[in-house]
Amino acid sequence: MKKWLLFSFLTLLFVSGCEGTNDTNNTATYDLRKDKSAPQYMSNRSVGRDQNHLVEQDITNQNPNFLDLNRTGNGTEQGGNNTGIDVDKARQVVALTKEFRPGSVWINGDRMWVTVYKKGMLTNKERVDAQARIHKKLITALPRYEIEVKVREDRR
To answer: Which of the two residues, 20 and 85, has the higher pLDDT score?
Structure first.
């Protein structure tokens, strides 16, 4: 009798487990994107530019020794500067002379290296004079840098 009772109970469990249908319309599914019960800490939604900017300012102002290695700040943060503006200014100063064509401009800390090109062949004296003229204009425009100027011949 006990075997019969155990066998019928197991059969009933097996049959009830296999009886389910494949109706997906009536099943409860969980969708993370529609879940509003908890904050989504790891989502790709943009929170808003103002809130992101506040987080950026908070991070850079927490430690005065924090270095802005990406140079992505807008220049208003403590210690933040944008050297791209200074590079553009140096190229603009060179281009406004009409005598020189700007080449590469490099900045490392408080030093700036500027390469300019002048049409035609140059003697050593002409090269030194041209270097002094453009150096004076660059120092006037960008006084915060120690500027090294290299004048090359543009033979095009």
So the answer is: 85
The alpha carbon dihedral of 85, 90, 93, 97 has a sign of: negative
The burial of 117, by beta-carbon neighbours within 10 Å (0-12 exposed, 13-18 middle, 19 or more buried), is given as middle
Confirm whether 113 is domain-assigned: yes
In this prediction, residue 78 carries a pLDDT of: 46
Strands (E), the chain: 100-108, 111-119, 146-154
Residue 8 in any domain: the answer is no
- Residue 109 in domain: yes
Q: What is the pLDDT of residues 61-89, one digit of tens each?
A: 555 565 555 544 444 444 455 678 899 99
Whichever domain contains 97, its CATH number is 3.30.70.1350
Q: For the whole model, what pTM was predicted? A: 0.49
Total tally of structural domains belonging to the chain: 1
CA atoms within 13 A on the CB side of 20: 9
